[in-house]
Amino acid sequence: MRVSTGARATLDRVAAIEVIPDQTIRVLDHGFVRLDASMADDLSVVNGARVSFARRKLEVDEADEGLIRFLMRDRHGTPFEHNAFRFHVRAPIFVAREWFRHRVGSFNEFSMRYARATDEFYVPEPEDVRTQVGKPGAYSFDPVDPAVAETTREQLQEVYETAYAAYERLVELGVARELARAVLPVGAYTEFFWTVNARSLMNFVSLRSAETAQREIRRYADACEEFFAERMPVTHAAFQASGRVAP
Ligand SMILES: Cc1cc2nc3c(=O)[nH]c(=O)nc-3n(C[C@H](O)[C@H](O)[C@H](O)COP(=O)(O)OP(=O)(O)OC[C@H]3O[C@@H](n4cnc5c(N)ncnc54)[C@H](O)[C@@H]3O)c2cc1C
């Protein structure tokens, strides 16, 4: 949802990037994963490995595909590090918090100290409102009654409206943005850049697109994986064949 209040028009907030160019996969209600740039192909894996024998290839052939499968299967991980994906992501803060736990990679995030907070908040689709069943570590997530789903969405919207109105009020009273932001819930959207190599990306995808990961971050991991599969199809196929375990 996007919060709209009368006072908003007077705000000098730095707008989130509105133009969504190519190389973008939309995720959730206001989010996206955009591949800002990449230096990534299967050949980089092959040559990273073959330099051990002072060899360099110009194209990937069948023997190289076998080599990639071997490297993946036997967990020779370093040849998968000679590449980079630079993603631009818009996601709810609670998703970003999970994402930032992945230490191997580089992040820069939108600052609510320097710019006015976003007025976009995550409201799940009714079918994404779920209940958890079972024990910690072994939960399953079941759909809820449609009335409960609607109540959940309404409650979230109400809280977001109230929180954003309080934020605006505090900023207009002259309270520093770095403090006023404390009223905002973790459903607020944030934006960040993430640069990562294929080895670390596979670790992220392996953990975050698994059934055990939270549904919202899974959608983002799936989007990242699409870009990975497109840029490095042989490596991606080997990753799949090895049970989606990062080398
Ligand atoms: C389903 C799920 C539930 C989770 N629940 C929780 C939770 O309840 N609480 C919580 O705090 N976290 C939780 N996490 C986060 C998790 O513990 C990891 O912090 C996160 O998944 C990042 O994984 P990583 O360390 O493999 O990735 P990265 O930090 O990107 O590291 C990549 C790899 O580098 C190596 N590495 C990196 N740093 C070190 C180091 N210091 N020492 C040795 N090797 C290193 C490891 O091989 C690691 O796998 C959860 C994650 C998932 C997927």
Give me the CATH architecture, please.
2-Layer Sandwich
Span from first to last CA?
40 Å
Please give the CATH class. Answer: Alpha Beta
Could you please say which CATH topology applies here?
Gyrase A, domain 2
Percent in helix: 25-40%
Strand order of the largest sheet: 1-2-3-7-4
Strand-and-helix sequence, N→C?
Answer: EEHHEHEEEHHEHHH
| Overall tally of structural domains | 1
Strand count, sense and closure of the main sheet? 5 strands, antiparallel
Looking at the structure, what is the overall shape? Answer: elongated
* Ligand identities: flavin-adenine dinucleotide
Would you write up a description of this structure?
By secondary structure, the protein is of the alpha+beta class. The chain has a single domain, classed as Gyrase A, domain 2. The protein is 39% helix and 17% strand. It has eight helices and seven strands, in the order ββααβαβββααβααα. The strands form two sheets. A five-stranded antiparallel beta sheet has the order 1-2-3-7-4. It has a two-stranded antiparallel ribbon with strand order 5-6. The chain is elongated, with a radius of gyration of 21 Å. About 6% of the residues have low confidence. The chain binds flavin-adenine dinucleotide (FAD).
